[in-house]
Records
---
Amino acid sequence: MPTNDNQKSRNGNKKSRNIAIGAGVAVAAVLLGLASYTATKPDDSTGTVKEEAAGAAPSTEQQAGVYPELEKLARRDADDPLAQGRADAPVVMVEYADFKCGFCGKFARDTEPGLVKKYVEDGTLRIEWRNFPIFGEDSERAARGAWAAGEQGRFWQFHEAAYADGSKEKGFGEDRLKELAKDAGVKDVGRFVKDADSAAARAAVKKDQEEAYGLGATSTPSFLVNGRPISGAQPDEVFDQAIEAAAKSAKGRSKAADK
């Protein structure tokens, strides 16, 4: 049966959209992947993964380094327990991180609380967490534990406990995860243990991990702020500038749409 003009048009539009997203991912791979390669390449003698405090910082210009097609990676699911902030916030920061990463912990303790107070609480920013375990099985267990805590509405409390000073040095074995769950106020620890070892937990972590690798993000933490890639635990002002530029741009688009 011949394809009609409308169907051809829809297929063409879909193809164009896929090409655009692919181009954006390729750009992000350059910005995140190449900038972070030296942070994560195996040590010649030990085969271990290295960390780095900061990778690629974005330009301070409002539109420089922004790839609108990458904004589509924001899920904006109001029921997502691994997110905080309004689902319709003008700015979404997607965070790819590992609970074994020391610089992720530094960001979580020193920078993120300020961003929450300054931008999440006033409705400007939404933070969407993506589990990106890159430091082996301990990282994988922690990621699944975080997801399981989220199933009982305690992800961010688990996040805080797991990133507390000295926490990662204790490891993330099964007993340690149960301790963290209790510290986070998870009510049903038995359910938590089952959820953390479930196929659903593994699938959720794998989905986030593959999304990050698809962007070329080979180190943690890595971020997208309304389509602007940021690599590494940058100074507070870098995030402030990126969020404020994204909010200004979103406001401009909203005004243009209303005309």
Note: Confidence is low (pLDDT under 50) at residues 1-21, 33-50.
---
Amino acid sequence: MSRIKACFDALKKEERGALIPYLEAFDPDRETSLSLLNGMVDAGADIIEVGIPFSDPSADGPTIQLAAQRGLKAGATLAGVLEMITQFRHTHKTTPIVLMGYFNPIDRYGVERFCKDAAQAGVDGLIIVDLPPEEADIIRPHIRAHHLDLILLTAPTTPDDRLKHILKDATGFVYYVTITGITGTNSATEEQLTQAMTRLRRATSLPVVAGFGITTPEQARSASKITDGAVVASAIIKEMAATFQDGKATEKSIPTALAKIRSLAQAVRS
């Protein structure tokens, strides 16, 4: 059984949704990023989404764009991100890791090689934002061969017929983009989420998590009740980045980010 499925099965017994915090690898440096990654588990993360820094992150808002720029400046590479996850796996065996990124770095790395190395590093799932389902056959056989989950995105504007096409090959969970926009901007209402979930439940039996625009503990609680989990990204990065001096981490940086995650975890569990 995959770590992702085991996680959602356990949460179903607890009758709650997942908290899925996000970090941008190497932001603002490798050491800080790895320390935060390790600390997220005890802070209450059920699944962790790790962003691969990329120079043109088209789906991301300004907060994550700046984090990606800091990560690239700190020397982030795809191989470096995988090595960081390998280190994480030395002490954290069960928490699922989902890599989020864009196809260009994967293509440059080599698709087959990437899937093999990602699985060996301890990655469980992949979100490739700019790879449409129609073109996913370039990577899907290698994902399956190495027992990774390909996590696909849906949005409020996705028509019903396309929804079925997208979800027929989805595994792990479905990522519902709650707004029509970029990360860290607006948020969906409870009514909008409820209506979306009614439609999504008809199209898939996989868990569905909500992301984009979830910033507060109250929003995370609401989203995790209506869906199967809440992804929180920009809000964590923004609070941590406010502690930086000249773009570098301070002694307050990691505690600030972990305090945010604890508040989110407490809300999701309440």
Note: Strands lie at 18-24, 48-51, 97-101, 125-128, 149-150, 153-154, 174-177, 208-211, 229-232.
---
Amino acid sequence: MARKKEKRFVLNQVLDNVLEEKKPLYDIIKGKWNELVFKKPNPLVLELGCGKGEYTVGLARIFPDFNFIGIDIKGDRIAVGAKTATDEGLTNVAFLRTKIHNLEDFFGANEVSEIWITFPDPQPLEGGIKRRLTNPRFLAMYRNVLIEGGTLHLKTDSEPFFDYSVESLKQMGVKNFISTKDLYNSEYNDRHHGIKTRFEEIFTAKGFKINYLATAFATQN
């Protein structure tokens, strides 16, 4: 396992679609993704905590006129998605290795069209709130980098985390969001485009229902 991880770290260093510390563009990419990475002025879509990039790559296959960026601190994971995209010739895919709380170091205001959060670690209520990807601090960052009316999507199997996320949005004054606690049997099922992460496959096989919400962030919600 250690050797496999080591090989993936080396792979990240040579793949052009991976940005990480000490590689070109890493320190200057803010506000310039379409100019320097994709070379096409398409809308930017982020997958936060992307793991192996199932959503990043899956969406890129379906929507060639959008540019997709998977973000995760785990280099051995993003290497899998980056290699898949490279092998398939997907030029609208990139990966950024960093922590989510550094998001505004890499994306300028109004630079992003959509954000996907897919099966994040729900984090415990006691001591873990500040690391929840839908706490007010993170939500404020998302609103800053999203364009006016940009969409935030959340998928999770954790109902307590989902309830917390809904309340966090309400506390921010966000009102125009849709939500369901049983995505596959809801009117919103087509919104996730049939893409499932590895964790989602595991959870649904065990009978867990999938919670989903989406909101279009605006100056006044």
Note: The helical segments are 2-14, 33-38, 54-62, 75-87, 125-128, 136-145, 159-171, 198-205.
---
Amino acid sequence: MAEAKRGKLISVQKHLRDQVANALRAALIAGELRPGAIYSAPALATEFGVSATPVREAMLDLAREGLVEAVRNKGFRVTEMTEGDLDNYTEIRELIEVPTVGRVTEVATEEQLEALRPLAEDIVKATRDHDLIGYLEADRRFHLSLLALAGNDHLVTVVAELRNRSRLYGLTDLDRAGVLVDSAQEHLTLLDLMIAGNATAAQELMASHLGHIRTLWAAGRRSAAKRASALRLGEG
């Protein structure tokens, strides 16, 4: 009986940690947590109405994703990205993903590619529903599942790490402006080209898509910076 209670308690604690982690990701995406700013687990715990432990554990999860970094005796600093970082991440992803899409077009079956269509549709639906967490998760699953068809697990791991370190910040304003929908639709177009066996066009669209993502990164970063500036002025 005692063992069952411990198991249930661990499950509840993990669920709470996951809930806090998702709330923190949403705050990062919305630009409510400012890049470069340091946040303490106790202060965030007070805002969420929970103890500091699940917040600290959630922040450690985000640190492993590269979204924040631990600052000794202070808390966690939201990771900052420069324009140079964005360019470098985009360049590496283009070097990996563009030729891989061409290769997958040639080796994957129509059934394998069609199996990805629900994920592509989930991306579009999430943008229309203004579900930013859902949008990013569906986008991640689509891209990594597509690359997995090349049969190289290490390649997928590298791209997953790049995606973690280049998460979109400050997307709320872009979502309200409707600019995410066009990027979301590109996933369906990409699938259609690949199913048709047009590797060249699929590679060109992937390169263009990553360029669009780079633009969204920059716009989200500027939006987050503007929010941070407005908050600082309000605090003054």
Note: Residues 1-11 have pLDDT under 50 and may be disordered.
